[in-house]
Amino acid sequence: MTNLMVEIDGDTLPLVDCFWVRVNSVGCAVGSVRPDLGDDLIATPQQAQREWSSTKRQQAKDEKHGMQHLLLSPQQWDEQAKPCFLGHCDHPSTVR
Question: From CA 84, how far away is CA 68, in angstroms rounded?
Fold first, then answer.
């Protein structure tokens, strides 16, 4: 597998060390996947979205409801996504 590099907040990192995170409209992380899932490499937000929403109809619903798919560094994942998964974030719990 090719070792693609990405730049996140000025840091250059191997893509496979990062995390794709599904974030709802209030900024709460509701899903996460590694870029090197199985034999496929997830390199774009659209590819990440397909991990959760495989049809165009589901993808349109995601966009309508403000769902985003963001690439986070390991440090960003620990700071921004992990608290959401542990229920320790400040986001409204009614939209998780």
Answer: 15
C-alpha distances (whole Å) from 61 to each of 10, 58, 67, 83 are: 32, 5, 9, 26
> What pLDDT is attached to residue 27?
93
Global confidence as pTM:
0.88
End-to-end C-alpha distance for the chain, whole angstroms: 34
CA–CA distance, 36 with 11 (Å, rounded to integer): 20
Residue of 37, 26, 5 whose CA lies nearest to 68: 26
The answer to whether 18 and 4 have CB atoms below 8 angstroms apart is: no
Q: Tell me the Cα Rg of the chain.
A: 14
What lies within 8 Å, CB to CB, of 53 at 6+ separation is 59, 61, 62, 67
Q: Are 40 and 48 in contact (CB under 8 A)?
A: no
